[in-house]
């Protein structure tokens, strides 16, 4: 058997069977339609498991489970729950069948409730159904950021500096990347509540193209050199954009270059500062948990301000062996969201919510500057813990915005210490730029438990962990850890080679 044949055999075996490290990798599919089932639960114990990604894929390492496991259980809203012996999970695809719903009357109590009464019960039982105290969560957090330069036109008008000519401006427009992707993955323990938070990072990775940042640094250095060679230190710059203008003293920018050097060194230190990464991961996770619909004054206000929304009971289904109401909601007048609630018929807990904005959340335009917050949507799925309170099992949020500039820009160097005209140099441009940004946040919680104030105070943040840079997706990086499987875009990401 050749080396290539052996490698191929190992690859197939890893993808379709249980490995020696007791890892199961598979895909959950609808038995009737053959479509993948996103957000299906793969349970291995009462409060431990994983969830399939948007493509129905999952991978779970049984070595990380606290007790010996002989079976896994797969369930999804509206489907039959199935149990599989670990030793029998040898297929790369697992089929589950839709669950037949019996007569709707089985979901309805003796006293038939209107949809408004159901929502009133939901709001009244928020304190009973959700955690408002301190908890510890083992979770995996992935942030995917996509930037696109939809429009970028610079019309050259005038320049008295030879190097800042039309050819240079054209080269700048070609250098700036039109699209970029940036992925951050973090496995951690999160301690806290709405107002308190700590994070202990176990492992982290960053996946992006370093060539983009490198090309911008080279551009910055080139501009700095041109600036030094052509502008007098005792001059001042008058910067005008339309009717607005400001003055900047050149020597305050270039004074022996000490401040510029110090600023660069500080920036370099921040890049190496491990606590800088921890601080932003902690803040992002807290922001996602703090804005849940059951918290005080959330952006997602369809429960806290339910009188501003219309609710419609549309159907019934099963979720985690519980019967649930399916309720659509939409704004009455000026509110921002529509979506679907899945409400437990017994305790009135919202077990899942899907939502999306119905209008621009922000829309600013003034004198050639514009900003639109055009995307705000997501899905949150909850699971009931041993204390009968619900905690997040999976959270997905997508936020998008568009920033635009359509303005003239004029930079004039003036100097009052020279004879003759004060104006020394001038650069005039017309800028038309449109930049789109989309952030996708995903959290999967593997385990959660309530903790005391003393437990929280004694918990420690690990500032020694630095994210590892990856120039392409590496399936070995998270081997032995439970995460939510990457989608096709992440699996196929790779940095293009730099052209000489």
From TrEMBL:
InterPro entries linked: CarboxyPept-like_regulatory
Protein name stated in the entry: Carboxypeptidase-like regulatory domain-containing protein
Source taxonomy: Bacteria, Pseudomonadati, Bacteroidota, Flavobacteriia, Flavobacteriales
One Pfam match: CarbopepD_reg_2
Domain of life according to the entry: Bacteria
């Amino acid at each position: 058997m050749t080396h290539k044949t052996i490698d191929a055999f190992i690859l197939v075996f890893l993808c379709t069977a249980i490995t020696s490290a007791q890892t199961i990798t598979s895909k959950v599919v609808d038995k009737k339609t053959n479509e993948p089932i996103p957000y299906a639960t793969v349970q291995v114990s009462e409060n431990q498991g994983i969830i399939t990604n948007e493509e129905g894929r999952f991978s779970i390492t049984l070595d990380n489970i606290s007790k010996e496991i002989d079976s896994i259980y797969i369930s999804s809203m509206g489907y039959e729950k199935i149990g599989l012996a670990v030793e029998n999970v040898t297929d790369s695809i697992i089929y589950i069948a839709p669950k037949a719903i019996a007569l709707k009357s089985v979901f309805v109590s003796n006293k038939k409730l209107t949809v408004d009464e159901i929502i009133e019960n939901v709001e009244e039982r928020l304190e009973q159904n959700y955690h408002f105290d301190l908890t510890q969560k083992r979770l995996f957090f992935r942030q995917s950021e996509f930037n696109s330069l939809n429009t970028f036109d610079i019309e050259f008008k005038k320049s008295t500096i030879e190097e800042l000519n039309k050819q240079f401006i054209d080269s700048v427009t070609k250098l700036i990347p039109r699209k970029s992707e940036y992925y951050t993955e973090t496995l951690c323990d999160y301690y806290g509540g709405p107002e308190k938070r700590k994070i202990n990072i176990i492992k982290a990775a960053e996946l992006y193209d370093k060539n983009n940042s490198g090309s911008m640094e080279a551009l910055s250095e080139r501009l700095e050199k041109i600036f030094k060679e052509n502008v007098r230190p005792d001059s001042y710059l008058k910067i005008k954009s339309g009717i607005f203008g400001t003055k900047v003293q050149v020597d305050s920018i270039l004074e022996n270059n000490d401040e510029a050097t110090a600023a660069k060194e500080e920036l370099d230190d921040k890049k190496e500062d491990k606590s800088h990464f921890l601080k932003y991961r902690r803040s992002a996770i807290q922001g996602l948990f703090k804005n849940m619909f059951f918290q005080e004054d959330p952006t997602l206000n369809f429960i806290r301000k339910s009188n501003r929304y219309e609710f419609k009971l549309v159907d019934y289904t099963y979720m985690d062996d519980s019967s649930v109401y399916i309720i659509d909601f939409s704004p009455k007048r000026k509110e921002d969201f529509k979506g679907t609630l899945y409400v437990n018929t017994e305790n009135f807990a919202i077990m899942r919510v899907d939502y999306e904005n119905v209008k621009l959340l922000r829309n600013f335009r003034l004198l050639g500057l514009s900003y639109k917050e055009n995307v705000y949507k997501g899905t949150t799925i909850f699971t009931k813990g041993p204390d009968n309170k619900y905690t997040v099992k999976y959270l997905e949020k997508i936020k998008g915005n568009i920033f635009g500039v359509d303005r003239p820009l004029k930079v004039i160097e003036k100097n009052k210490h020279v004879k003759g005209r004060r104006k020394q140099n001038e650069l005039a441009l017309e800028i038309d730029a449109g930049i789109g940004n989309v952030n996708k946040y995903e959290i999967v919680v593997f385990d959660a438990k309530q903790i005391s104030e003393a437990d929280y105070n004694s918990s420690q943040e690990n500032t020694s962990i630095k994210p590892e840079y990856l120039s392409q997706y590496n399936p070995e990086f998270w081997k032995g850890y439970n995460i939510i499987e990457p989608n096709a875009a992440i699996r196929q990401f790779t940095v293009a080679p730099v052209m000489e």
